[in-house]
Prior knowledge:
Blueprint: E1 3-9, E2 12-18, E3 27-33, E4 36-48, E5 57-63, H1 84-97, E6 107-117, H2 124-138, E7 148-155, E8 158-161, H3 165-170, E9 173-179, E10 184-194, H4 196-224, H5 238-256, H6 261-312, E11 328-332, E12 340-346, E13 349-358, E14 364-365, E15 374-375, E16 377-382, H7 399-412, E17 425-434, H8 439-454, E18 463-472, E19 475-480, H9 484-489, E20 492-498, E21 503-510, H10 517-539, E22 555-560, H11 566-570, H12 575-584, E23 587-590, E24 595-600, H13 606-617, E25 625-634, E26 637-643, E27 646-651, E28 672-680, E29 686-689, H14 691-697
Parallel strand pairs: 5-6, 16-17, 27-29
Antiparallel strand pairs: 1-2, 2-3, 3-4, 4-6, 7-8, 7-9, 9-10, 10-21, 11-12, 12-13, 13-17, 14-15, 18-19, 18-20, 20-21, 22-24, 23-24, 25-26, 25-28, 26-27, 28-29
Helix pairs in contact: 1-2, 1-7, 2-4, 4-10, 5-6, 7-8, 12-13
Amino acid sequence: MPDNFTIELGHRTLSLEFGELAKQANGSVLVRYGDTVVLVTATMAKQPRPDIDFFPLVVDYEEKMYSVGKIPGGWGRREGRPGEEAVLAARMIDRPLRPLFPEGFRNDVQIIASVLSVDQNNSPSIAAMIGASAALTVSDIPFEGPIGGVKVGRVDGKYVINPNQVEEEKSDLDLVVAGTADAIMMVEAGANEVDEEAMLQAILFGHEEIKKICALQEDIRAQIGKPKIEVELFQPDHDVTQWISDFATDKLKEALYNQDKLEREDDVSKVRELVHETYLQEFGEEKHLENQKAINTVLDDLTKTIVRSMIIKGIRPDGRKLDEIRPITVNVGKLPRTHGSGLFTRGQTQVLTVCTLGLKSDEQLLDNLTEEDRKRYIHHYNFPPFSVGEVRPLRSPGRREIGHGALAERALLPMIPGEEEFPYTIRLVSEVLESNGSSSMASVCGSTLALMDAGVPIKSPVAGIAMGLVKYEDQVAILTDIQGLEDALGDMDFKVAGTEQGITALQMDIKVGGVSEAILREALAQAREGRLFILGKMLGVIDKPREDLSPYAPRIITMEIPVDRIRDVIGPGGKTIRKIIEETNVAIDIDDDGRVYIASTADGDGEKASKMIESYTKDVEVGASYLGVVKRIMKFGAFVEILPGKEGLVHISQLANERVNKVEDVLNIGDEVLVKVTEIDRQGRINLSRKAVLAQTE
């Protein structure tokens, strides 16, 4: 019989089942939350991986399409590489777990979360995060957890744990919090201009629930947990550490303090080379080869110690004050043929964002475990190697690109106008041209600029800033606009995006405990000051969306037609709609609900296409007059097309006021003629009169 443990979470039961499934993994758990079911396994390699200087943790989040009763798309009809949602879920699980493994741990560890059943009211990613911690906690893998994770919403001003679908639709906050019983480790949020204090209280509200989840796992460990394995941890030799500290400390200090990133990296590289050369000369080749990895590790640790200790004293590597933002330049309209573009430069971080407007058919199709099947606002983020002065192959987007793109997309989402106001698909592409920290927040700024340059009527401009925190001994320093070195060596980095009114996106990773509520409040307040400063710089260049779209952007006309007339517009085999497109040089999308989107550029005629569609869906009315075309002539009269595909008969007696002996005396095939509908008989036949119109004009 499996061991089953439960807890009430958000007024629903969360169940953790151990001992029945996947028993050959080091640890496994079946998590049930409502009808959401996730199997999570944790497995560790028996030996450490040699010649690496990092902890090789891999988190895989496997979306099984059968979990929502779907068959995967594609010709193979099986799950392929992880989709965007799966990548984001894996990153979200990885971030709070990674800091909780022992320093120097080099054994490969793999977490696999297999989503087996999904109830849309209960998040599988939250179940997977809790399951990952539980599997590690009961396993013999060294792990300094447990952690818990929850979603927090805010409905009518009240915070809600793990909101259901109805509550999510009403919520102005979509927040994920993860952490241990003692510390918040990770925050990921999207919001509709929520103020800093409300965001902070939401984080603390979520942490109270996390404490209960951690307490449950501690109880589980006490009852069924395995003893932890003693593993070999990489630790540099004390004598090597002392020698490097004595030899290199002053040299590294001098090399590290330089405003230019590339010069600084070059100077530090020369110091590292000098350390290796000197050690080789003093201790010989054999000793150097034996301690080569240790030398690099000690140099990394020494660099970290130097930078952190100096920051606590108020000295940053590039000489800025703790709350000082790097120089900013802003440019829009850089690319003449695109629909909109924005170039945002902050120090040595530079991002060019390009906006493209498209039709409804350009929407991104989604094939994931949610009920959403498409989206009309898309943000893509590219990070080419030249942006950091490196050479490496160009590949498809990785986890970093997907994660940064999603964060920037989330920041602008509440400001994007609705489809009724602006019936376009919107794609933003952020090209990172230079990077020295916070390229994702530069992408947010570039996106705002590109949208306004394109004439998209966003509700408010959005800016973003990356903040850092260093906690050294008993002192704390909060940094505004962190660069890459400060990001890598700090204890907390958080990215905040928003408008003048409030926060729209937040991402936070905390690597240490003891970050109090007061420190978090101060950090958020300092971030707000920085965000408003950047917004001021942006608005000094373009303060509102352009009134007109680019001449190269499509102009979209929307109209509605009866659902039962869609077939008339499309025609047999698409013949009718192709004819409209060919004659007017437009693009046309028709929704199943009868909404029609007509897109035309400078050489297209959207108004003509609209009138043609209207004519195909219009009903013939008795008493109305129409300008028709003669299609056929018979002895007894002429057949005139008064609307596309709708013909009526003008009897020879109705051609003129005087007697007509021969139809051809009055009309010929192809003639345009004004006629009046006099009758539609029981069989739907339309009777027309030219004589009735002549009488009206006389």
